[in-house]
Amino acid sequence: MRVIYAPLFFSAFIGTAVLIVAAGNSFAWLLPLLLAAIGISTFCEWRWPYRHLWNHSQGDRLRDILHASVNESLNILSIAAIPLIAPWLPTLGIWPGHWPLGLQLLLAIPLADLGITLVHYASHRSALLWRLHAVHHSVTRMYGFNGLMKHPLHQLLEALGGTLPLLLCGLPQDVTALLAFSIAIQLLLQHSNVDMHIGPLRHVFAWAPLHRLHHLKYGRHGDVNFALFFPVWDRLLGTALYLPDYELADDDLGIGDCPNYPVDYAAQLLQPFHGAQATHPPAVVPAGLRDALAEYAKV
């Protein structure tokens, strides 16, 4: 199960979503399918955990539910509003809408992934964007559901970076809905607490064994593995990192120089707009991680 979990989860849920929409059903059916994915993700994390402690709430469960509920509701409203917005958008009319739905999604995912990855990369370079993105990085444990935990303004920026160019090309509403669903499934896998063994698939998909390193709390050591779907973008950016011999500790995640980042949902929404951001000395890099990074640098 540890070997097949990620590819099975990814292909089964996205494949089912394509079949549902291709059969002429409303994309509203994708919501119960996403809830089923969250339920299966949670069950598998308890059955095959990477870190046992990460399955237990740290006073953050309600907050994560609120983040996910608000963000996914905004996604649904945005998709529903496409027919109202489309007449006001200039369009190139070059989207291959005559292709089968599955092929259109296969084209949309890497194109959106590039835009989302670049916004994500910029969010670690711009102090202004980082204020919004820090909400997501404040997590001190990783489990699939908190992949959906983001400041809504930062989610909006990522969504614009990933989908606005496609909408200008003429991306239809049903493909947009499938793309949003696929992103949610990928976020569940990226932040999963399942002890998944992905082997060579790490070169293809940016799943949890890669993305956990992005959440390291040790300053710039977490400025790696920005891609949402495909790690090829990180290889092109020079930010790819894979440490197969380093097992993350329970307390390796978070924002090392801001350990007291607010946990409450409302406080997190307001935190980016505070004038001064309290900081502490950077967290000390553990010896095991330092050695693993040194070995990786030799490769």
Q: Can you walk me through this structure?
A:
There is one protein chain. The protein is mainly α and 299 residues long. It has one domain. Helix content is 54%, strand content 0%. The longest helix is centred in the middle third of the chain and has 23 residues. It is globular, with a radius of gyration of 19 Å. The two termini are 30 Å apart. This is Fatty acid hydroxylase domain-containing protein. It is found in: Membrane.
What is the total tally of β strands? 0
Q: How would you sum up the global shape? A: globular
Radius of gyration: 19 Å
Biggest β-sheet strands, sense, barrel = none
Helix content: 40-55%
Number of structural units classed as domains? 1
Helix segment tally: 12
Helix/strand class: mainly alpha
The unreliable regions are none
- Give average pLDDT, whole number: 93
Q: Could you spell the SSE succession in H and E letters?
A: HHHHHHHHHHHH
Distance between the termini: 30 Å
- The fraction of residues in strands falls at under 5%
Keywords:
299 residues; 54% helix; Sterol_Desaturase_Related; 12 helices; mainly alpha; 0% strand; membrane
Provide a quick synopsis of the model.
The chain is mostly helical and 299 residues long. The protein contains 12 helices and no strands.
List the helices and strands and how they pair.
Elements lengths: L4 H18 L7 H18 L13 H20 L1 H4 L15 H23 L3 H11 L14 H18 L3 H18 L17 H7 L17 H6 L27 H6 L16 H12 L1
Keywords: Membrane, Transmembrane, Transmembrane helix
GO cellular component, one term: membrane
GO molecular function, one term: iron ion binding
